[in-house]
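A favour, since you know our structure tokens better than I do. It will help me judge whether the discrete encoding reads sensibly. The space below this message is yours for that.
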Amino acid sequence: MVKNRRHKMIREIINNHDVETQFQLMDELHKYGFNVTQATISRDIKELGLIKVTSGDSTLHYAFPQGVVSGNNFERAKRMMRDNLLKIDVSVNLVVIKTLPGTAQGVAFCIDTLSLKEILGSVAGDDTIMLIIREECSPRDVMEKLQALAQ
């Protein structure tokens, strides 16, 4: 998935360079072949939880919050589900998730990082996520797993 590769590259860039602006991050990604817009960068920054911190020379640059382990997908997914989930429902081979406005993409990203074998893929809008469930799996079981995650 392009988004996962881009997020991995953003992590690498942020860990190795002092990136001060979204446009600077966009330029760095362009160097690695990612054709992105400022709007995409803005969403990525939000989804990755990047913050601005002060450098030794008093300039601000993007960083990951201290004490947050970016690889802890399960805890992050739990927090995102708990904070943003409004409703989960099922239909045939779909699980439909309603979230707070503007949070569906971040929640979907966290669900994707869990790599649940039952889920073929996800599609996220502003406040709705559709999870496509494998034919041999139960959408209701996936719904229950996600509801338990939100507790």
Notes: The longest strand covers residues 85-91. Strands lie at 51-54, 60-63, 85-91, 94-99, 119-124, 128-133.
